[in-house]
Amino acid sequence: MRAAVYKKYGPPDVVSIQEVPKPVPGGRDLLVKLAASSVTSGDARLRAFNMPKPFAIPGRLVLGIFGPRKKVLGVEFAGTVEAVGRR
């Protein structure tokens, strides 16, 4: 599957489209076959690590100190459920 991946914080050119392994749904997860997705201002802020100063240190702890913990961008999507994880 293809995904928008970034391995470090920075300008738009740190994002690349790469082949990544298809995820296996865990206990309470769903695997969704994507029909549409969006790029939001939140995705741009995460990519650039653009946060107000008081949130810089807590933000690094949550999102990743040296680089992003979650390397695939995007949280808004639409599609059909392909698989359901076991409980």
For the biggest sheet, the summary is: 2 strands, antiparallel
Q: Counting H and I runs of at least 4 residues, what is the number of helices?
A: 2
Structural class: alpha+beta
Terminal CA distance = 25 Å
Radius of gyration, in Å, reads 15 Å
- Quaternary: single chain
Work out the helicity level: 10-25%
Spans of 5+ residues with little confidence (pLDDT < 50)? Answer: none
- Strand element count: 4
Strand content: 25-35%
Bulk shape = globular
Strand order of the largest sheet: 1-2
Give average pLDDT, whole number: 91
Note the run of SSEs as H and E: EEEHHE
Fold and architecture overview:
This protein has 87 residues and is α+β, with helices and mostly antiparallel strands. The protein has helices at residues 41-48, 56-63, and strands at residues 2-6, 15-19, 30-37, 77-84. 18% of the residues lie in helices and 30% in strands. The two termini are 25 Å apart. The model has no long low-confidence stretch (mean pLDDT 91).
